[in-house]
């Protein structure tokens, strides 16, 4: 059953001049980790705030636990939110911050503390309960904010870029932690980010948003391997999918599928690649150059794993190839997925 669902949701601002959400229908199943991914301004935060009840939709409905909650205030929705700025009370201790929502709900002191210690234990912050927020690192503050959200036993977690204030290393470990405790708790989670690596790592499903609409929603592997349109194809993947115009179509392939022809077996399409530059990244070689076959002259990038040791020399043309089954086709006018066309080997 869908724990959270939005139906035909529209949210306009400024008397209809801004279409922040432009007809979104989406559901998160029980226990699911759904990630809303998209560039700045695509409507992610507005969608989350509308689910939370902090914004009222212009039209459409929000359902939580199968009930229409459109129009109900946030506190009637059994949700817990953690935003970018954790908004901890600076003068209260960590413990007081965590129990605050329980106090407000009238829970007795012993029970409040028991819950706070349970959440702090899960998040590994038991030793910090007497500190003030200013005595904590960014990562620790984030865990306090999460603990405060967890103690309320919400049906749903709504997280808006909760890791964005952390440095890259801490972010990776915090991501891992978030995923683990969400799996332990089994709480349905909707997580907003513009970071595709975070989305790929965390999401059971990813909904890719652009300009207030969902371009595609599916498991990370589907969104990566079978993008529904050129926006998804180029927004996800680093470097993004290569796209070459050809006969009213765009022929797409991922950089890791463009390899020296000698290592590509089976049905394939070969392309001469005029290499101009190379980068070494995490053991891979990123080879940049221009192809003039298939269609117009187009810049592409190939990503060669360390296991491929073919010598590649910038300034020279090398024979590269893409396995035929790795090619994707898009309509060049609409950018939508299109039927494949045959390209000669
Ligand atoms: P970011 O990643 O930068 O936070 P986002 O995807 O979360 O972006 P939103 O904050 O949802 O995007 O904004 C979507 C669109 O709605 C933007 O064009 C934004 O300028 C506009 N918008 C959001 N809130 C308001 C508001 N209160 N009044 C007017 N326009 C708004």
TrEMBL record:
<dbReference type="InterPro" id="IPR015855">
    <property type="entry name" value="ABC_transpr_MalK-like"/>
</dbReference>
<dbReference type="InterPro" id="IPR017871">
    <property type="entry name" value="ABC_transporter-like_CS"/>
</dbReference>
<dbReference type="GO" id="GO:0016887">
    <property type="term" value="F:ATP hydrolysis activity"/>
</dbReference>
<dbReference type="InterPro" id="IPR012340">
    <property type="entry name" value="NA-bd_OB-fold"/>
</dbReference>
<keyword id="KW-1003">Cell membrane</keyword>
<dbReference type="Pfam" id="PF00005">
    <property type="entry name" value="ABC_tran"/>
</dbReference>
<keyword id="KW-1278">Translocase</keyword>
<dbReference type="InterPro" id="IPR027417">
    <property type="entry name" value="P-loop_NTPase"/>
</dbReference>
<dbReference type="InterPro" id="IPR003439">
    <property type="entry name" value="ABC_transporter-like_ATP-bd"/>
</dbReference>
<dbReference type="GO" id="GO:0005524">
    <property type="term" value="F:ATP binding"/>
</dbReference>
<dbReference type="GO" id="GO:0140359">
    <property type="term" value="F:ABC-type transporter activity"/>
</dbReference>
<protein>
    <submittedName>
        <fullName>Carbohydrate ABC transporter ATP-binding protein (CUT1 family)</fullName>
    </submittedName>
</protein>
<keyword id="KW-0067">ATP-binding</keyword>
<dbReference type="GO" id="GO:0055052">
    <property type="term" value="C:ATP-binding cassette (ABC) transporter complex, substrate-binding subunit-containing"/>
</dbReference>
<feature type="domain" description="ABC transporter">
    <location>
        <begin position="4"/>
        <end position="236"/>
    </location>
</feature>
<dbReference type="GO" id="GO:0008643">
    <property type="term" value="P:carbohydrate transport"/>
</dbReference>
<dbReference type="InterPro" id="IPR003593">
    <property type="entry name" value="AAA+_ATPase"/>
</dbReference>
<dbReference type="InterPro" id="IPR008995">
    <property type="entry name" value="Mo/tungstate-bd_C_term_dom"/>
</dbReference>
<keyword id="KW-0472">Membrane</keyword>
<keyword id="KW-0547">Nucleotide-binding</keyword>
<keyword id="KW-0813">Transport</keyword>
<dbReference type="InterPro" id="IPR047641">
    <property type="entry name" value="ABC_transpr_MalK/UgpC-like"/>
</dbReference>
């Amino acid at each position: 059953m869908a724990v959270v669902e939005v139906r035909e949701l529209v949210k306009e601002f400024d008397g209809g001049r801004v279409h922040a959400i432009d007809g979104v229908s989406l559901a998160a199943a029980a226990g699911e980790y759904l990630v809303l991914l998209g560039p700045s301004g695509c409507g992610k935060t507005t969608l989350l705030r509308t689910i939370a009840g902090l914004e009222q939709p212009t039209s459409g409905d929000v359902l939580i636990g199968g009930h229409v909650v459109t129009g109900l205030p946030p506190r009637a929705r059994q949700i817990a939110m953690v935003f970018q700025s954790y908004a901890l009370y600076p003068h209260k201790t960590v413990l007081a911050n965590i129990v605050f929502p329980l106090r407000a709900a009238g829970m007795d002191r012993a029970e409040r503390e028991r819950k706070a210690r349970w959440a702090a234990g899960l998040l590994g912050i038991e030793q910090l309960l007497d500190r003030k927020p200013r005595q904590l690192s960014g990562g620790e503050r984030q865990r306090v904010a999460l603990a405060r959200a967890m103690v309320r036993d919400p049906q749903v977690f709504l997280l808006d870029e909760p890791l964005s204030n952390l440095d890259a290393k801490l972010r990776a470990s915090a991501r891992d932690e978030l995923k683990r405790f969400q799996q332990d708790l089994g709480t349905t989670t909707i997580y907003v980010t513009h970071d595709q690596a975070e989305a790929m790592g965390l999401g059971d499903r990813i909904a890719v948003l652009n300009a207030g609409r969902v371009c595609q929603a599916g498991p990370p592997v589907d969104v990566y391997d079978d993008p529904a349109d050129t926006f998804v194809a180029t927004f996800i993947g680093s470097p993004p999918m290569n796209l070459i115009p050809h006969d009213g179509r765009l022929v797409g392939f991922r950089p890791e599928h463009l390899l020296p022809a000698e290592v590509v077996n089976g049905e394939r399409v070969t392309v001469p690649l005029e290499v101009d530059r190379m980068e070494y990244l995490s053991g891979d070689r990123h080879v940049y150059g221009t192809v003039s076959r298939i269609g117009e002259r187009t810049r592409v990038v190939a990503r060669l794993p360390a296991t491929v040791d073919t010598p590649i020399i910038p300034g020279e043309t090398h024979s590269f190839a893409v396995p035929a089954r790795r090619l994707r086709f898009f309509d060049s006018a609409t950018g939508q997925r299109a039927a494949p066309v045959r390209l000669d080997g």
